[in-house]
Amino acid sequence: MKKAEQKSPAPGRGKVMPDKSIKREVMFHGIPASPGIAMGQVLVLGKENSLLDAPPEQKKIPPEEVESEIARFKDALEETRTETKALMARIKESEGRNDAGIFDAQFLILDDKMLLNEVVSGVSKKFQSAENAFRQTISKYIAAISAIQDPYLKERAADIRDVAERLLAHLQGRSRTDLLKNLHEPRIVVAKDLTPSDTALLDRKNVLAFATESGSKTSHSAILARSIRIPAIVSMNRFYERLEDGDYLIVDGFLGTAVLNPDKGTIELYRQKEKSEARLYDEYLRETQLKSETVDGYRVELAANVENAENLEDIIKFGAAGIGLFRTEYLYMNRTSCPTEEEQFQVYKKVAKNLEGRPAIIRTLDLGGDKLSSLIHTQHEQNPFLGQRAIRLCLAHPDLLKTQMRAILRAGVFGKLRMMFPMVSGVRELDELLRILGEVKADLQNSNQRFDGSMEIGIMIEIPSAALAAEHLAEKVDFFSIGTNDLVQYTLAVDRNNEQVATLYEPTHPAVLSLIAMTVHAANRHGIWVGVCGESGGDPLCIPLLVGLGVKELSMSPMSIGQSRRLIRKISMREAEHLAASALAAGDGGEALAMSRKYIEEKFPVILRER
Ligand code: PEP
Ligand code: MG
Q1: Per-residue model confidence as pLDDT tens digits over 433-483
Q2: Is there a contact between 243 and 263 (Cβ–Cβ < 8 Å)?
Q3: How do residues 496-506 score in pLDDT, each as one tens digit?
């Protein structure tokens, strides 16, 4: 399915030799990660030419620019330091390598006072540009280390080259971070991989789409792409090495295909597809006042998942009942210090106010797993998804959690906020969280601060043990929200980001459905409600099953709300319950999926074609 296919060239009459200037159309297949069509030139990240070996410029800077040139160099140093910290964390987590050696050498360079003085003197005395002064200085260092006959030091020379290239890229505004943040022209970004923090940086105005060789539908980069409405494809096999900067590409985020060098006919075909998608989108916008209710009158709340407080008006535009999941960890990414209480308070207050009375669930920090931040230094972990993630990290750093709790509670005065804890595995952890929450409330009270003392508190059910302990947990909270992205990965032992086991990642697996059924049952017995905020919540093939299992709220990317509303209005609760019961008794996820597909084909076949 993911193999690269090659279209045969059109037969040309009388042609003896193939004309190399004619670029052939090639189609690639991957996993659709975020819907939409994009066409344009690509920017391939990670294939940049060496800046260190570029010929030195002869141009001198005018004396009045000396100060700003030195400041520019110091900024680039700082940016490279932050980037190096993030890189170190990323390599540690994703590859399990502890390459302290590499980074020690790099930090030595970045913190070297002699090097800084030499660059400053090159700029201020010889009127060299910061690039030239740095290039000259660092080249001397590299030459000196390389001359020593020691294999270890030879390797360190390569590490210093690496950090020097990155520093020069920052100086010229061409680092990966700069490229993602400040694209000057619309481009489709192609990369081997994009981390969630890379994706958070994407300049939405100019990034038309992204396509990566790694990743899966539930990886956080894919989730973020849906949230910021950038078409995306992941897991594009043998793709990256075939593309060059400036190539023309079509990305079809509905089907997970990309066409390199499309001919006129293909471009026209995709233009038509784009138009019909736009028509559908308009239709959905006209239906936002319709109730999201089954034909037999069972109401399902449709809420939005968001990663920041930037496009809150969209939530109302798409007719969401509120925010079912605010992933606050993005507030901690791509920065040099943790967000303060005041800064967070302003963000949550904006959410509370802008939703005009609709509720918003603010989830406390879920860093760890694939969402890393260089701000919080954790030990190297062999299995980060099973390690110190989310509340585990917060309980190890209670001040971090307390700051966030204070900000959420205070912002609650301005609207209807709910607080939710991710990755709760059982009662002991929940008791500890509630104890800390009690302390925070008492502090706020004692210091006469205004806060929402009766804020609803909920937990995510995303670890099988939490579903199994739901009866006990339900006694202590106001709602449950099922995180199917993690519940599927932890129940089936399938890494949600690993494309090699993607076929085993089955949200309709009867084992997963049973855990959801148990959760709903426990919640009903204790009079609390259950939502789903994982990606299954917006997946048409899962919606009838979730409704049939008794879930009351589905939270999804705002873009999926229109389609989900239409689907819910076509199904009946009686039939959905019947479908869910059959799926629970199925032998495997494929069988349950086939049942759901058959039901949708009867009720609303067009939705499957839209996918
Ligand atoms: C989930 O696990 O389903 C979820 C919504 O949380 P996240 O995707 O942020 O892990
Ligand atoms: Mg989760």
Answers
A1: 999 999 999 999 999 999 999 999 999 999 999 999 999 999 999 999 999
A2: no
A3: 888 788 889 99
- CB distance 368 to ligand 1 below 6 Å: no
pLDDT of 372: 67
Q: Whose atoms come closest to the Cα of 557: which ligand?
A: 1
Q: Which of 127, 101, 104, 130 is nearest to 115 (CA)?
A: 130
As a whole number of angstroms, the distance between CA 596 and CA 604 comes to: 12
Give the tokens for residue 198: 């890379």
Question: What is the rounded CA–CA span in Å between residue 405 and residue 387?
Answer: 23
CA distances (Å), 169 to each of 191, 271, 328, in order?
17, 36, 30
- Measured in angstroms, how far is the CA atom of residue 486 from the centroid of ligand 2? 5
d(CA 85, CA 70) in angstroms, rounded, equals: 23
Q: Please give the Cα distance from 449 to 444 (Å, whole number).
A: 5
Q: pLDDT tens-digit profile of 125-150?
A: 999 999 999 999 999 988 888 888 77
For the chain, the residue count is 611
Sign of the dihedral through C-alpha 315, 233, 372, 423 = positive
pTM greater than the 0.85 cutoff:
no
For residue 424, give the amino acid letter: V
The CA angle 501-506-507, to the nearest 5 degrees, is 140
Angle, CA of 219, 490 and 516, to the nearest 5°? 100
Q: What pLDDT band is residue 10 in, cutting at 50, 70 and 90?
A: very low
pLDDT tens per residue across span 175-222: 777 777 777 889 999 998 887 777 877 888 899 999 998 888 888 888
CA quadruple 351, 401, 387, 327: dihedral, nearest 10: 0
Helix (H) or strand (E) holding 286: helix 264-286
As annotated, the active-site residues are 220, 533
Ligand 1 within 6 A of CB of 533? yes
Cα(548) to centroid(ligand 1), Å:
22
Q: Biggest alpha carbon distance in the chain? A: 90
Would the CATH topology of 64-171 be identical to that of 301-455?
Answer: no
Mean per-residue pLDDT for 268-292? 92
For domain 301-455, the question of CATH label 3.40.50.970 is answered with no
Distance, CA of 148 to CA of 211 (rounded, Å): 43
- Residue 485 CA to ligand 1 centre (angstroms): 5
Cα of first residue to Cα of last residue in the chain, in angstroms, is 17
- Predicted confidence at residue 223, as pLDDT, reads 86
Q: Considering only the top CATH level, what class is 64-171?
A: mainly alpha
Share of residues in the chain with pLDDT > 70 (%)? 92
Domain boundaries, the chain: 64-171, 280-297+479-611, 301-455
CB 530 within 8 A of CB 479: yes
Residue 209 sits at the vertex; the CA angle it makes with 270 and 347, to the nearest 5 degrees, is: 135
Which fold would CATH assign to domain 280-297+479-611? TIM Barrel (3.20.20)
Tell me what pLDDT residue 101 has.
57
Report the C-alpha gap between 270 and 267 in whole angstroms.
5
CB of 307 closer than 6 angstroms to any ligand 1 atom: no
List the one residue out of 152, 176, 178 whose CA is nearest residue 87.
Answer: 176
Distance CA 477, CA 458 (A): 5
Contact 156, 145 (CB under 8 A): yes
Q: What gap in Å lies between CA 208 and CA 42, rounded to an integer?
A: 9
